[in-house]
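Hey, sorry to bother you again with one of my protein questions. I've been puzzling over a protein and I'd love to understand its fold better. Take your time with it, there's no hurry, and the full record follows here:
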Amino acid sequence: MEPKIIFEDKHLIVAVKPPMVPSQSDQTKDEDMMRIIREHLELKHQGTAKPYVGLVHRLDRPVGGLMVFAKTEFANAKLSEAIRLKQFKKIYNAVVCGKPEVLQGELKDHLVKLSTVNMSKIAEPGQKNAKEAILNYGLVKTVRTDEYGELSLLRIELKTGRHHQIRVQLAHAGIPIWGDTKYNPLFVKTKEWVRIALWAAELSFKHPKENKTLEFNVDPQDYPFSLFLPAIEPPDKG
């Protein structure tokens, strides 16, 4: 697979991960983003040493959008530190079933990962292995459809990075993501593949070497995001 490269220099690559492509190798042995980026670099620099590719962060397999890969150990360390220090801004687009009661706000929960079924659930604070999960959201637009009723486009900023965090928190808030076969009751029994309407749309972070701020934005165009075209705008902060 030829990767869609948004930005590349000698330190890092920003690329678009298609939905259903793993971020890294898993038990399925399907083509993953790490392999795709490595093959891209091997082809670009034929005859040189094996290229370094560092996985800075992950996206769930069903989710598409922007990912950053480091091309050096130095860049990997600096970008990973930026994530740890919460200096790495991530904005997601999500189409949810329904409409939030509060049009702009914060969701704060505690999550426990259920490794045996690859899911997470809401937990009580202080429960064993429970981790705090925080995100901010804003409603962009709501449309009405014949098949699914009201669908709403949200812009989401992650404050923490927990397993399935956005999916679990939105479902718990009563606005599950369209196409989510794990947490949306409308899709749980779906046998065929459905494209989950969650997309990593924006990234903002400091360049690991030059220390300048890099900003990237790629909005999805397919259904159900297409219901909100021609433009996906952030919510009014006023």
